[in-house]
Amino acid sequence: MMPGSTKILDAAQTLFAGKGLDGVSIREIAEAAGISKATVFHHFESKDALYQAVVRRSCEGIGQLLALLAAREDGDPLISLADYRRQDLEETLAHADVVRLVLRELTLGRDEQARRLAEDVFGEHFIHLRKLLEKAQSTGALRHDMDTGIAAASVVSINLFLFLVWPVLKHLPDTPFVRMEDAAESMFALLVDGLRYQAQAAGGKA
Questions:
Q1: Residues 6+ positions from 13 with CB-CB distance below 8 Å
Q2: Cα of 127 vs its chain's centroid, Å
Q3: pLDDT tens digits, residue range 49-91?
Q4: How far, in Å, CA of 34 to CA of 20, rounded?
Q5: Fewest Cβ atoms closer than 10 Å to its Cβ: which of 64, 78, 122, 163?
Q6: What gap in Å lies between CA 48 and CA 105, rounded to an integer?
């Protein structure tokens, strides 16, 4: 991160979260950061580049964890996968304003913006998560007839779904959704059991 850019990112994150990307100007961001528009453009070439940087910063912690877990040569890959899932939920809740911002922007259907997020922010995370799943396949812990990309998206979707729909889930009649972490653990267990099932049913054959 370039020196001096932190206060720009802080101001942009607050404004983007409150008004959405379209509702905020570079001038507003500069005023909130106490700097000039020229200084903002010195650090970020456009508002969209600034948005990408805000999202990237919020993902740094989970990205570092994923890279570490994917690079590990020892240990149980399923335990690493569970550790990632738990930490990802913590990071999602810690950066709730940015997660809501990303989800809101994605619903607008801006393909170019989504492509840049995939390439510059989430792509590396996706690669590391696939590596974790491939390691689990190589040890025989998970079945081999599933695409690790689909499985990776399924793991990620648990936390995103609960985060997005929790306000409704917790009010359902006789709801089992009391604690988000408990619900996420149960859904993750169901997913992993499903990924294991066919190999077990076939007598453990890959």
A1: 54, 58, 97, 98
A2: 13
A3: 999 999 999 999 999 999 999 988 888 999 999 999 999 999 9
A4: 20
A5: 64
A6: 11
